Amino acid sequence: MGGPKKLSPKPLVINGFNMTPILLIYLAMGAAVGGALGHFRRCQSGACPLIANWRRGALFGALMGVLVYFTTGGGENSATMNLSTAHVKHITEAEFAAEVTEAELPVVVDFYATWCGPCRQLAPRMDSLADQYAGKIKFVKINVDESPKLAKQFQVEGIPLLVFLQHGKTVGTSVGLAAKDELILRLDALLHMNLPPPADQPASDQPK
């Protein structure tokens, strides 16, 4: 789980099937590895039919690439991750000040990417928690590829990254796929902090 990587968010449709560029990368890498194995490790005995030659190796590698793509969550339509849900709003850099910095409620910001498998797994968990804490804590999500300035500002090096804020100030973070029980403890602690709003917070201290 590395830092943000710029990928095209537009899906590629082939024969009516939604194939995103990242899927094509998995296909190409799998085919290349399989083709190389078939070419350099030719099987004369017939004991390894899947990579007996470069063509079979490339086909086998491509199929394995597709398998890895879907098992890591890539098969889900990534566009849905950028949609707001009933209780979690997708925001951009332009909306950050109004939605987070100036929010009266405590805020949880979910930094994610559409190509991130753990981010996909965390999304429904966040929706459930946002429903549970509706009216008490505000939940928003930010795509690191769409908002690189915010990702840099919050030093996002691994995703999913949850940032807990009160009055625009970071009071805690959580990196990775956290368990729901652990998140509930963090959210309850956030509620009980009750930090007073700063009287005159300098503009330089506020997230931009």
What does this structure look like?
The strands form two sheets. Strands 3-5-4-6-7 form a five-stranded mixed beta sheet. It has a two-stranded antiparallel ribbon with strand order 1-2. It contains six helices and seven strands. The longest helix is centred in the first third of the chain and has 20 residues. α1 runs antiparallel to α2. By secondary structure, the chain is an alpha/beta fold. It has two domains: 51 residues, no CATH class; 128 residues, Glutaredoxin (3-Layer(aba) Sandwich).
Report the structural category.
Answer: alpha/beta
Number of strands: 7
Known CATH architecture of the largest domain: 3-Layer(aba) Sandwich
**What is the N-to-C succession of helices and strands?**
EEHHEHEHEHEEH
* Shape by Cα distribution: elongated
Oligomer class? single chain
Beta-strand residue percentage: 15-25%
Mean pLDDT: 77
- By CATH's scheme, which homologous superfamily of the largest domain applies? Glutaredoxin
Whole-number tally of structural domains: 2
Distance between the termini: 26 Å
Briefly, what CATH class of the largest domain? Answer: Alpha Beta
CATH-defined topology of the largest domain = Glutaredoxin
What portion of residues is helical? 25-40%
Q: Within the largest sheet, what's the order of strands?
A: 3-5-4-6-7
What would you report as the Rg, rounded to the nearest angstrom? 22 Å
Largest sheet: 5 strands, mixed
The number of helical runs is 6
Note poorly predicted spans: 1-19, 202-208
